[in-house]
Specification:
Layout (H helix, E strand, L loop, with lengths): L2 E5 L3 H10 L4 E3 L2 H6 L5 H11 L4 E4 L5 H11 L6 E6 L2 H10 L7 E6 L2 H9 L4 E5 H6 L4 H15 L4 E5 L4 H10 L3 E4 L1 H8 L2 H18 L5
Parallel strand pairs: 1-2, 1-8, 2-3, 3-4, 4-5, 5-6, 6-7, 7-8
Amino acid sequence: MALIFLDTASLDEIREAVSWGILDGVTTNPTLMMRAGTADLKANTLKIVDMVPGPVSAEVISTDAAGMIAEAREILSWAENVYVKIPTTVEGLKAMKEISSWPNGRINATLIFSPLQAYLVAKAGASFASVFVGRMDDAGLDGMAVVRQTRAIFDNYGFTCKVLAASIRHPLHVVDALLAGADIITMPFGVLQRMIRSPFTDAGLDSFLRDWAKIAGQPGT
């Protein structure tokens, strides 16, 4: 079963999604933290951890391996379900290889745009490989093809790294990611809301309620 993550740092959005009973985790990044109006990465991440029992990803801001490793050591100490997001670069690979050797080396490799990048982060020991579908589609590429190719490569070679479909723009991306075999799909709250809504469901429910009101209003009922 594919896991559903929310791609946000908004505590209100996360609280609402948790109340639905179907949320498995949360992914954040510096941009999302900024939109949530906070510069305190640790404090906001821990608030999210208090609400979400599953994986919560927090991203490093360093661009060199040594800096990423130092940040990762701090981030991973915050809670047992916190994952550190490392960019898919040469320096990122160096950092992932080191971090993955730690007992708590939980890594979400981010900003993946090709199956070869996904293959390399899996070899480096990443826990999740985040394929940015929407950004590729925005550039006229087939982002979901990379999810399918990554799934096939990981299955071919028995990688335990999870395929994470990220940069989800709309519910059809979710459908395609499920059909492509993604292990995890992370999405904005707006996409999650649109997944459950249908005008046909609303119309059907209104019709049922009107019919019931007619029956309930009859004498002797």
